[in-house]
Design a protein that fits this description.
binds (3S,4R)-3-hydroxy-2-oxopiperidin-4-yl beta-D-xylopyranoside; eight-stranded parallel beta barrel; 398 residues; alpha/beta
Length: 398
């Protein structure tokens, strides 16, 4: 049974002591003390002690979230309690993909996403709806866009897209705080992808998608989401130009019966799937510069899908790589948290027991161990480093 209780002062003292140890890089192997936990985990689940990440994020007023998959919770008793203990936001990992909710023409099944958002609501967490309009052209094997949409003629497909966005936003209105409305519109040269949603060869599908989302859920935060556009580069330049144009377009909406004007877009999601190898992670200073230029346009930023993959042999990473991983988690999370327009960080999972990196060996050959807890839920050096990034951001403006 999981319960949330007000921490007695002994727990706060223990938390402070643990934070001090974490600060020294020693916060990874402290045995759990009996009783008085802020959130009790079922026996057998590792309790890292000290403040949960969400406690630190709440203090800062930012999101700390994780991708969440119901199938993982089904046969792992530690999955849900650890997610709700550590994070203040859940992102259904696959439950709002078009191939999950819209398998048949016009028939929508929100049951899995609803179940995840219900866990979030029960646990006083946010729910982020992820990737309404996405067609990963390099990964047709994922089957993200169902065949009934792919086979429609272009004009009909555009109407389907607008209907798709509208249905999702109507369904989650008032329950989701954020939508990543359009994902991965650009190739690595900053050219618009010729994906299935791009029926006219220009950015009008992006505009139409945001307009539908904004009109339907005027209060939701609307994000454009991208990978490889974390730092300043040719792709993030293209993203910047696009979102700047979107930010300057206004939509008339109705909020509580009153007419209001809202810009089409609120922010940019930086996926942050990175690795410890050469050229596999952006330079934090350049990420900071990218975030800063978005701020000047009035745009928020979130890290939306962070993981840091490392080379593994039989599932095991070297100690040196785990330290490199720690340093990347620290510097990149801190870079975001120090920016006033950074709304927070979502990790693409939290335990090496469940990760899309190891599920996709063709894409991430020889890589794994990408998350802050190991497969037994023990904190890796990265976990303490993420805590430290939050602790040292106290006082930053958000
Ligand atoms: C991934 C999921 O984690 C996998 O389970 C699925 O098979 C494919 O999609 N960029 C995104 C995420 O925006 O939605 C992707 O999630 C990872 C890459």
């Amino acid at each position: 049974m999981i319960s949330v209780v007000t921490p007695p002062s002994s727990v706060l003292r223990r938390a402070a002591a643990t934070m001090a140890l974490v600060g020294l890089g020693l916060g990874v192997a402290i045995a759990p003390a009996a009783g008085n936990e802020v959130v009790a985990l079922p026996s057998g689940c590792f309790d890292p002690l000290g403040p949960a990440l969400r406690t630190l994020a709440d203090d800062l007023g930012v999101v700390v979230g994780t991708a969440y998959r119901s199938a993982f919770a089904a046969d792992d008793p530690c999955y849900e309690p650890t997610a709700t203990r550590e994070f203040n936001s859940l992102t259904p990992e696959i439950a709002t993909f078009s191939n999950t909710i819209a398998r048949q023409p016009g028939e929508y099944d929100f049951s899995d996403a609803d179940a995840i958002c219900a866990i979030a609501a029960r646990s006083d967490m946010r729910c982020q709806v992820h990737n309404l309009v996405w067609d990963p052209v390099d990964h047709p094997e994922w089957g993200i866009v169902p065949e009934w949409i792919r086979s429609q003629p272009p004009a009909e497909r555009r109407r389907t897209m607008i209907d798709h966005v509208t249905r999702i936003a109507r369904h989650f209105r008032g329950r989701a705080d954020t939508y990543t409305v359009v994902n991965e519109a650009f190739d690595d040269q900053g050219r618009l992808q010729a994906n299935v949603w791009n029926t006219t060869g220009d950015e009008s599908y992006v505009v139409d998608a945001f307009r539908a989302a904004r009109r339907t859920d005027p209060q939701g935060d609307l994000y454009y989401n991208e990978f490889g556009a974390e730092d300043v580069n040719v792709k993030s330049d293209a993203v910047f130009d696009l979102v700047r144009r979107l930010r300057r377009e206004w939509v008339v909406v109705e909020v509580d019966g009153r007419v209001r004007h809202r810009p089409l877009i609120d922010g940019v999601g930086l996926q942050m799937h990175v690795g410890v190898g050469p050229g596999e992670a952006p330079d934090p200073a350049s990420v900071a510069a990218n975030i800063a230029r978005l701020r000047r346009e009035g745009l928020s930023v979130r890290i939306t899908e962070m993981d840091v993959r490392v080379p593994v042999t039989d599932g095991r990473a070297s100690a040196v790589d785990l330290l490199r991983q720690r340093d990347l988690y620290h510097s990149l999370v801190l870079t975001c948290l120090l920016a006033p327009n950074c709304e927070g960080v979502t990790f693409w999972g939290f335990t090496d027991a469940h990760s899309w990196i190891t599920e996709n060996p063709e894409t991430f050959s020889g890589a794994g161990a990408a998350l802050p807890l190991d497969a037994q839920y023990r904190p890796k050096p990265a976990y303490g480093a993420i805590r430290r990034a939050f602790v040292s951001s106290v006082g930053s403006e958000h």
